[in-house]
UniProtKB/TrEMBL annotation:
E.C. no: 6.3.4.13
Transmembrane segments: none
Pathway annotation from the record: Purine metabolism; IMP biosynthesis via de novo pathway; N(1)-(5-phospho-D-ribosyl)glycinamide from 5-phospho-alpha-D-ribose 1-diphosphate: step 2/2
Protein name: Phosphoribosylamine--glycine ligase
Cofactor(s) essential for the protein: Mg(2+); Mn(2+)
Domain ATP-grasp: residue ranges: 107-313
Gene name of the encoded protein: purD
Alphabetic keyword roster: ATP-binding, Ligase, Manganese, Metal-binding, Nucleotide-binding, Purine biosynthesis
Organism: Candidatus Danuiimicrobium aquiferis
Catalytic activity: 5-phospho-beta-D-ribosylamine + glycine + ATP = N(1)-(5-phospho-beta-D-ribosyl)glycinamide + ADP + phosphate + H(+)
PROSITE patterns associated with the record: ATP_GRASP, GARS
Length: 427
């Protein structure tokens, strides 16, 4: 088989790494990829939103399966376009991708499906939002409706700040047209967990659980980021809990979509807050999580390719996936200044010093400069993942490896998974 993967982050590197292990696959192309991906697959110079070029490439290179990494092409309807040309593609159609593309759509589907989620209201005028804020107590969770590169959620601790945020989003369009409408919702407390599942719109197979670390600095301080590290499995849920979460959240959501004639085929990411009242859905994403994928896929023993093909063909026949019982810990190395402005073109050194065969380095923001040196090109540069018999071993190995990488100004969190496994030990 020939496979085309779309995207250029750590998630896509992990997907390519996993797809490459399949005996069914003879060639992998990646559009556009990055320096690390180019070492294991052929990168093609097509951007993630050049859909006509992508289709042309898939047709002329006889691609058997296309796998979409990021949300934007899905929200733009790349799957509908590929299908119209009879090209096999893994991912949900545009109508289903609204679960991530529009928070308003997503919350309304959840309400209709009776899925536990924070109480919410939708606003498109500053006045009405301010009246609402005046009647309620902080903190307020304010979300731009559309895609905002993971930045569209603001938590305001005071009414003044909430009013300012509302004006910034609706009036000043700080997130562009994504902020035409907003959702204001109740603030939930608890531990977060990421549930990724594969579905053809009927059968659901959950992947192993994982936990992301969204804040930039240790002890969950600093601004929200795309994710600074993750580990799998999440230490506070059992397989039974995971099944029950899926039945309470994803299943009714997928069934509600189906009643509207929308069949969800692909990967669904359910962002969960484990509250005192049980699991609540924070958000849906319509694609693999990043960095969750880098922590989950190293533990997957089954071949992922047949499952993706079955879903792309509309009938999931696989019943179960096999998992490595070990823990996987992933730490992201980020550029100085991330998630704000950051420098580029800083040399990446020390990768060859990592000699542990239980460790994988997935590239996110790397490229080669004209002199052939590997340099930084993004906010998140690398995701280093390590397997270990328990959290402690995975933690020790991943940090031993990441400390060998030398990039001027780059930083990483020192506490990925630490709070939770310390809690487990204390029990
Ligand atoms: P979202 O993109 O909707 O997942 O939001 C990004 C992050 O904001 C989540 O991972 C949570 O950490 C936080 N968040 C979102 N919604 C809520 C909420 N209702 N209560 C508390 N935190 C939230
Ligand atoms: N790690 C969070 C996300 O992929 O959206």
């Amino acid at each position: 088989m020939k496979v085309l993967v779309i995207g250029s982050g750590g998630r896509e590197h992990a997907l390519v790494w996993k797809i490459k292990q399949s005996p069914l696959v003879e060639k992998i192309y990646v559009a556009p990829g990055n320096a690390g991906i180019s070492q294991i697959a052929e990168c093609v110079n097509i951007n993630i939103d050049q859909y006509d070029r992508m289709i042309q490439f898939a047709e002329s290179n006889h691609i058997d399966l296309t796998v979409v990494g990021p949300e934007k092409p899905l929200a733009d309807g790349i799957v509908n376009r590929f299908r119209a040309k009879k090209l096999k593609i893994f991912g949900p159609v545009q109508e289903a991708a609204q679960l991530e593309g529009s928070k308003v759509f997503s919350k309304r589907i959840m309400a209709e499906a009776h899925v536990p989620t924070a109480v919410f209201e939708v606003f498109n005028s500053v006045d009405q939002a301010e009246k609402f804020i005046c009647k309620k107590n902080p903190p307020f969770v304010i979300k731009a409706d559309g895609l905002a590169a993971g930045k569209g959620v603001v938590i305001s601790e005071t009414r003044e700040d909430a009013n300012k945020t509302v004006r910034n989003i609706i009036q000043d369009r700080m997130f562009g047209e994504s902020g035409k409408q907003i959702v204001i919702e109740e603030f939930l407390r608890g531990d977060e967990l990421s549930v990724l599942l594969l579905t053809d719109g009927e059968t659901i197979i959950p992947l192993a659980s994982s936990q992301d670390h969204k804040r930039a600095y240790d002890n969950d301080e600093g601004p929200n980021t795309g994710g600074m590290g993750a580990y799998s499995p999440c230490s506070f849920v059992t397989d039974k809990d995971l099944k029950s979460i899926v039945e309470k959240t994803a299943r009714p959501t997928i069934e509600t979509l189906k009643r509207k004639g929308i069949i969800y085929q692909g990967l669904l990411y359910v962002g969960i807050m484990m509250t005192a009242n049980g699991p609540y859905v924070l958000e849906y994403n319509v694609r693999f999580g990043d960095p969750e994928t880098e922590a989950v896929l190293p533990r997957m023993k089954s071949d992922i390719v047949p499952v993706m093909v079955e879903i792309a063909e509309g009938k999931l026949k696989t019943k179960k996936l096999e998992w490595d019982s070990r823990v996987c810990m992933t730490v992201v190395l980020a550029s100085e200044g991330y998630p704000g402005d950051y420098p580029k073109d800083r040399e990446v050194k020390g990768l060859s010093e990592i000699k542990d065969d239980q460790v994988s380095v997935f590239h996110a923001g790397t490229s080669f400069n004209p002199a052939g040196q590997m340099v930084t090109s993004g906010g998140r540069i690398l995701a280093v993942s390590s397997l270990g018999i328990d959290h402690q071993e995975a933690y020790d190995r991943v940090y031993r490896s990441i400390s060998k990488i030398k990039i001027e100004g780059a930083f990483y969190r020192k506490d990925i998974g630490k709070r939770v496994f310390e809690k487990t030990k204390a029990r």
